[in-house]
């Protein structure tokens, strides 16, 4: 026969007020050296509250930029470039004469079928020519290839000007940077007008996509050589623009002035700013006929914009270029705000 063992009873816990608490005096607390290295840190300053000799102290950390090399300077986040200045000049567009004001393009007309055929043939040929020169610069025939990124950007800028002229009859896309994209009057300006769309958005997106392939192949630190290849396309009328397909020389107007040299990076940010403005207007329908690009094109465009914003900081680091944080933050900003 087994005997049962009784379960011991649980002792009763004492009340909280029955415990004896040994407190450390305030003088002993001040004598404790909890962090012996604290006094050696130069960027920590002990200040008394209200200017009294009270024992309660507060610590304020003083930012010493001379010792904090890992932090960015405030100047790096200020605009380093005037993105609204002309592509091949430091002159601000707002100071140009009244003759350079954007014309009234609300009555822009669409290309005829024969003009559309010439237009498409010309754009395809020019894009192929740019790709051919790019491949030659990779080692096949360097004498006929691009010497730096600035030459690529010049040719792309000419093509962008030509395509945009067929949309809005503005021959210099530098001028569209002066417009306020958030102004509803820009949309109302084209209400009731006829659409000039013949698929130009496809070529704008293609140029933005091709530009990604060219960026990583040329150093961003190279300067222009001032060889005079930066002349802009000047188109007096739509008929002259299409007729220039047969004679490309008619598209260029020599101004005889010395063009100030810009770095490749300066031209790159301006081209991206122009493309961003064009895409934003196409998404909002702020073009003749209030035409809007399709959702499929917006998805493709959003991917290109995001890839560009990721690639640029990596290229800047690779080329040991610092600053330009503001310009990088503005890359395709208007497009992404509308497309996402």
From TrEMBL:
Residues 1-61, 91-110 are annotated as: Disordered. It holds the Pfam family TFB6. GO terms for cellular component: transcription factor TFIIH holo complex. It comes from the Eukaryota. Signal peptide: none annotated. This is WGS project CCBQ000000000 data, contig 00015. Residues 1-12 have a biased composition (Low complexity). It comes from Kluyveromyces dobzhanskii CBS 2104. Residues 23-51 have a biased composition (Acidic residues).
